[in-house]
Amino acid sequence: MGRIISLTIISILLVVFDVYIYNAIRSIFPNWSTQKKKRFRNIWWGYTIVLLIGVFISIFFNIKLGIRSVTLVAFFLTFVSKFFFIPILLIDDFRRLIIWFKRKSNKKEAVEEKTDNNISRSEFLVKTGMAVAAIPFGTLSWGIASGAHDYRIKRQTLILPNLPKAFDGIKIAQLSDIHSGSFYNKKAVLGGVEMLLNEKPDIAFFTGDLVNGKASEMRDYQDIFSKVKAPLGVYSCLGNHDYGMYEKWPSQAAQDKNHQEIIKTHKNMGWDLLINENRRIKVGNEEIGILGIENWGAGRFPKFGKMQEAVKNTDDLAVKLLLSHDPSHWKAQVLKDYPQIDVMFSGHTHGSQFGIDTGDFQWSPVQYIYEQWKGLYQENNQQLYVNVGFGFIGYPGRVGILPEITIFELKSA
Predict the structure, then answer these.
(1) Less crowded by CB within 10 Å, the N or C end of the chain?
(2) Contact 322, 293 (CB under 8 A)
(3) pLDDT at residue 146 above 80?
(4) Are 271 and 311 found together in one domain?
(5) Which tens digits make up the pLDDT trace of 329-367?
(6) One domain for residues 178 and 138
């Protein structure tokens, strides 16, 4: 019911935007022939009607993923572009209102002011609005065409004072937030996996959200991600999307079955899924601990993780590395109650799939929701790394915050 209400509100807004923008564009072309006016009207409103029908069908009926993705992306780009157009038109209408009041006050305004190019202010502003609307449309379109699969290797040294000598120089690869249900380019995805394999990591981590919600989404990608291997093992944990919570199920039993299928997929790929448990990794005669919990997130996200079970029988280990999908878990519980955790590895934020990352400066809207949203954080002797994700969800692209494969090197102090 909530989705229907939200979609209805957004659709009404889009139609209101359409009426407003349509009339503004028509007003600057008064000399159009009847045929041109009719053609413009049919194209404008035909696109809007087809788009809205397509969106409702995509959300409420089971159609092909590719068609659904194209429809929803078109809707998203159209809405954002028109949203940017509206403020320019409001400026023009406000200007017109001032002129109207001046005329009412007997202040002569014989003709509308002209710009240096001898066009009316209204025409100038409407055309400016069209140009402004084209910027997000072009940027977001480029993010789909280029950013979605522009995988980047991020290298990070982790200095651990208690690291056993046998583990000094060990290389760990991290993937997070695959969201296989959003993929549409198997060749590009395979290329990203091969980038990871070329790094020849000793250990690999996956920190949750294998799918958007359904285990079946991995059907075409299981073989690709099965290639992720490491001599000391591949270890994984669950994210909030791995519970099927955002899908409509005929029964709780169906949702539970789907969840078990996701767990089975980890096993089929040769990944060691840690569900509130730990593993000892041995090199020579020395050991460190890999711990993994179910999703635990602050706020509205599920708190299935049980840290007390994950840390059992690990007191003798000099270093403990925790896989926990949601970075909010670090401050909410790990820092307060589990000082024995040396490093926590997370994902979840996606870096909002939009932002700025110059190396020295990084910004994303998601930072107003998550204090720790990208990269390495440290407090006292504990560290957190947040990977911005390998895949995407919702908007099928990335702008500025590109898909990430993290390569860590463990070093003793």
Answers:
(1) N
(2) yes
(3) no
(4) yes
(5) 999 999 999 999 999 999 999 998 888 888 889 888 888
(6) no
